[in-house]
Amino acid sequence: MEKNSMEEFQRSTVPRKNVIEFRPPLYKQRYFFVKDIVNQYKPKKVADLGCGNATLLCMLKFHSCVQELVGVDLLMDRLLDWNSDKLSPSIGDHLGPRDLDLSIVLYRGSAVEKDSRLLGFDLITCIELIEHLDSEDLAKFPEVVFGYFSPGMVVISTPNSDFNPLFPASTFRNSDHKFEWNQTQFQHWASNVAKLYSYTVEFTGVGAPPPWAKHVGYCTQIGIFKKKQPDPGSWILAKPTGSRVSEPEEHAYQVVFTASFPSLQQKHFLLFVLCTEVLKEVEAIRQKYVWIMKRKESSEPESEEDTDSGLVRRPGLFLTDAQVAQIEKSPKPYSVGKRFYVPLKRLIGYPKVNRLVADVSTLRTLLAEGIPMRMNRAHTSVQIDLDPYDYPHDYR
Amino acid sequence: MSGRARVRARGRARSPSPADAPSPTSVDISASEASSTGDFAGTSRISQTHGVSPGDARCPFIQRSGKSRRDFTDLDVCTREKLAHVRDCKTGSSGVPVKLVTNLFNLDLPQDWQLYQYHVTYVPDLESRRLRIALLYNHRELSNKAKAFDGVILFLTQKLEEKVTELSSETHRGGTVKMTITLTRELPASSSVCIQVFNIIFKKILKKLAMYQIGRNFYKPSEPVEIPQHKLSLWPGFAISVSRFENRLLFTADVSYKILRNETVLEFMTDLRQETTMSCFTQTCEKRLLGLIVLTRYNNKTYRIDDIDWSVKPTHTFQKQDGTEITYVDYYKQQYDITLSDLNQPVLVSLLKTKRNDNTEPRVAHLIPELCFLTGLTCQATSDFRLMKAVAEETRLSPLGRQQRLARLADDIQRNKDARFELETWGLHFGCQVSLTGRVLPSEKILMQDHVCQPASAADWSKDMRNCKILSAQSLNKWLILCSNRAEYVTENFLHCLRRAGSSMGFNVDYPKIIKAQEDPAAFFSAVQKHVNPDVQLVMCILPSNQKNYYDTIKNYLNSFCPVPSQCVLTRTLNKQGMMMSVATKIAMQMACKLGGELWAVEIPLKSLMVVGIDACKDEVSKGMVVVGFVASINPGITRWFSRCILQRTATDVADCLKVFMTGALNKWYKHNHGLPARIIVYRNGVGDGQLKTLIEYEVPQLLSSVTEASANTSSKLSVIVVRKKCTLRFCMEMSRSLQNPPLGTVVDSEATRPDWYDFYLISQAACRGTVNPTYYNVIYDDNGLKPDHMQRLTFKLCHLYYNWPGLISIPAPCQYAHKLTFLVAQSIHKEPSLELANSLFYL
Question: Where is the composition biased (Basic residues) (chain B) (predicted)?
Answer without folding.
Answer: 1-13
